[in-house]
Design a protein that fits this description.
It is built from four helices and three strands; from the N terminus they run E-H-E-H-E-H-H. By secondary structure, the protein is α/β, with parallel strands linked by helices. The model has no long low-confidence stretch (mean pLDDT 89).
């Protein structure tokens, strides 16, 4: 199963979400992960938690959706955000879950 995860959607930064992703890889042998967000931050977190990089794909994005963004305009104004990118990938069949 390939799971796409927006790792930029946490109040604590991507580190905690990447930690959870790395824990999931250790727990479940039959999953692959696509982590969507700032690749530099994701790479640092993966190195810290020592996950199997062969089961992780990183998709770099630069836009971030904030709590102040209008929900109806997010897909147009921030189409390059981690959330929009991850959902688009799911719709294109590039993963099994988001």
């Amino acid at each position: 199963m390939k799971i796409i995860a927006d790792v930029m959607g946490s109040d604590k930064g991507c580190r905690e979400l990447v930690k959870g992703a790395c824990d999931a890889l250790r727990e479940y042998e039959n999953i692959e992960l696509v982590l969507v967000g700032d690749s530099d931050e994701i790479e640092k977190a993966i190195a810290e938690f020592g996950a199997a990089k062969s089961k992780i794909e990183i998709v770099h994005t630069t836009d971030v959706i904030t709590m102040c963004d209008d929900p109806l305009s997010v897909n147009r104004a921030k189409a390059g955000s981690s959330m929009s990118t991850g959902l688009r990938m799911l719709a294109e069949g590039k993963g099994d879950a988001f």
